[in-house]
Design a protein that fits this description.
Blueprint: E1 2-7, H1 31-45, E2 49-53, E3 56-61, H2 81-93, H3 108-112, H4 114-117
Parallel strand pairs: 1-3
Antiparallel strand pairs: 2-3
């Protein structure tokens, strides 16, 4: 069986992260906001778990947020906190969705933004 490891710290963010930043680009978050988002992401993902998806194990592991203040999104990543939240919730609700030919609909903004994927280099 193949395993797909998913670690989420910079890949899945949640919105309980303080009022008024939902429209803020993730690349513009302060260190404190990054920590808060990481902690909220860990809460969304809950305990580590493995989900079997047609013979492929997808492992969801909550992030270790101890260094989140030093982790930043690429400067060109223009998706908002709300868009990132929507993707995070979609992946947490259906981990197998990451194995499809196209990402979950809520993740399209993330995966189509060249500033977030590194395709703008």
């Amino acid at each position: 069986m193949q395993k797909l490891w998913m670690t989420a710290c910079v890949f899945a963010f949640a919105a309980a992260c303080g009022g008024g930043i939902g429209d803020k680009a993730v690349s513009e978050l302060t260190a404190d906001e990054l920590v808060e988002l990481c902690e909220d992401t860990a809460a969304i993902l809950g305990e580590p778990r493995t989900v079997s998806c047609d013979g492929i194990d997808v492992e969801l592991t909550p992030p270790d947020c101890s260094d989140a203040a030093n982790e930043a999104f690429p400067a060109g990543c223009k998706i908002t906190v709300d868009q990132y939240l929507a993707c995070s919730e979609a992946v947490a609700a259906d981990p197998c969705s990451v194995l499809g030919e196209s990402p979950p609909a809520a993740c399209v903004p993330l995966f189509s933004d060249p500033g977030c994927t590194g395709d703008d280099q």
